[in-house]
Amino acid sequence: MTAPAREDGRWARRIARAVGIAGVLLLVLAVRVVTASRAELVEADRLRERGDVDASVAHYRRAARWYAPGNPYSTDALDRLAEIARGAEAAGDRDLALAAWRSVRGAILGARSFYVPHAERLERADEHIATLMAALPPPPVDAGRSEAERRAAHLELLRDVPRPSPFWGLVALLGLATWIVAALAFVTRAIDEEDRLVAAQARVWGTVWILGFGSFLLGLALA
């Protein structure tokens, strides 16, 4: 094999290794989200079967809050909360219905980053919350308003939610890009041809990797 061919082979292996590392890290994060969501859902189901519906609502909310695209447990938790809320409404249990719908709303808004997931579910939850709130005895300031007017006012307040911040969304995207590039650079530059660690390069690209990952998490949290 010629020297250029051997060099190309080494770069290909390094790039493949870097891509593999980045993939493993993303997989670890995804597994963490899915397993935590499933654990909360299982606990919520157990509490609900035992008759402790109020406590189950809190765990369903946590399960739904562990959102990731394609996570079935998060979606199942939202379904359970909506089921509890509708059942409570039918039974005239306004407090439980409000708690469940508010949990749907809180979980969805708590999971937003660059976008708001489950937008249709959020809209339905807002409508139910507004209807339930309007049916409560009005405070003195709203005594002259009809129930329909109070509902409209509640709905307007509920839908007045700040959109995800473009700035922090950009920070998250740049952090993700930096994280991936740093992982590639670490494998291709911080490890020599004999698979030994190059200390100076390892410090540089390891630091960049940490900063990129931190920026990604910060952007997600504040977007």
From TrEMBL:
Membrane-traversing stretches: 167-191, 203-222
UniProt keyword annotation of Membrane present: yes
The entry's keywords: Membrane, Transmembrane, Transmembrane helix
Top-rank taxon: Bacteria
Protein name in UniProt: Tetratricopeptide repeat protein
